[in-house]
Design goal:
Layout: E1 10-13, H1 26-34, H2 44-54, E2 66-69, H3 73-76
Parallel strand pairs: 1-2
């Protein structure tokens, strides 16, 4: 698709407290937090900002990538 000037990327968020993750037990939350190098959970606003960047002209030369928005979790595990 790049030859037609169409970019394709993906977001890989880490643990983001939402209604969907509200069923996670406290030990599971602690495990996730302990394995996140930034030492905190992400926010929906941070994931939205990453998506907005990938949709912006500034990301026009980025394609075929997976952007981890996970506080460093993917580096740590």
């Amino acid at each position: 698709m790049a030859s037609r000037n169409i970019t394709s990327n993906a977001l890989a968020p880490g643990f983001i407290p939402t209604e969907l993750t509200s069923i996670v037990t406290e030990p599971q939350r602690k495990y996730m937090l302990d394995n996140t190098p930034l030492g905190r959970f992400g926010t929906t606003d941070e994931v939205a900002a990453a998506a907005a960047f990938l949709c912006s002209p500034e990301a026009g030369y980025i394609t075929g990538q997976v952007l981890s928005v996970d506080g460093g979790m993917s580096m740590h595990m």
